[in-house]
TrEMBL record:
It is found in: Nucleus. Its main location: nucleus. This is TF-B3 domain-containing protein. SUPFAM superfamilies: DNA-binding pseudobarrel domain. One of its GO terms (cellular component) is nucleus. It holds the Pfam family B3. GO terms for molecular function: DNA binding. InterPro entries: B3_DNA-bd (IPR003340), DNA-bd_pseudobarrel_sf (IPR015300), REM_fam (IPR039218). Residues 1-81, 99-193 form the TF-B3 domain. Keywords: DNA-binding, Nucleus, Repeat, Transcription, Transcription regulation.
Length: 203
């Protein structure tokens, strides 16, 4: 049995559900399990022993997961977590992939700003843009956040603090920032991975 962080369960409307569940591992293999609500906690049960063994997961390992489908049978991608030294650097946008991947830094929370890499901002027309950006979170909520050009940097400022608090962002969270609409008021998807330690518990 594996408990899910309530932040993840609530943000994806899983906190009051009991249903079949499909887990997909990094090799794209599918595993059938069950999602159960137990009072104020949500857990995955049945089939986890085989899943953990097949993916060489040990107690204390840290993993991340993301909900990719939330229908009658939810589908969750299950990914092993890389250590800080193993993690790849932020990935700038290219002509075909207008996104970057990074982690929440202490100043993102303390100073209430998010810096955008120049290699991402420039090709997407954000370096000279003044005004608002629409940020869509994992719950499909839309947030208006002020976009500012500070010389050699582009930052999200006013509105970022509300967004980060509402989504429970904390230092070390890994996220993907993807532009889906360009123009005077750009629209981006902000996707945050959720991490948790693996524990072995009786079902």
């Amino acid at each position: 049995m594996q408990y899910l962080p309530m932040k993840f369960a609530r943000s994806n409307d899983l906190s009051n559900r009991s249903c079949k569940l499909i887990l997909k591992d990094p090799k794209k293999r599918s595993w059938h399990a069950e999602l159960n609500s137990r009072g104020s906690r949500v857990c995955i049960s049945f089939g986890l022993d085989e899943f953990f063994t097949a993916n060489d997961l040990k107690e204390g390992d840290t993993c991340s997961f993301e909900l990719v489908e939330n229908g009658e049978t939810p589908v969750i991608n299950f990914l092993t977590h890389l250590t800080k030294d193993d993690q790849p650097p932020p990935q700038p946008a290219t002509d075909n992939h207008s996104y970057f991947v990074s982690t929440i830094k202490p100043y993102n929370i303390k100073r209430c700003v998010l810096h955008l890499p120049v290699k991402f901002a420039k090709p997407n027309g954000l370096t000279k843009l003044k005004g608002e950006m629409i940020v869509k979170d994992d719950r499909q909520r839309l947030w208006k956040i002020k976009l500012k050009d500070r010389g050699d940097r582009v930052v999200l400022s006013s509105g970022w603090s509300h967004f980060s608090r509402a989504n429970g962002l904390k230092v070390g969270d890994r996220y993907k920032f993807e532009i889906i609409k360009k123009g005077k008021r750009p629209v981006v998807n902000f996707h945050c991975e959720y991490f948790f330690p693996v524990y072995f518990m009786p079902c």
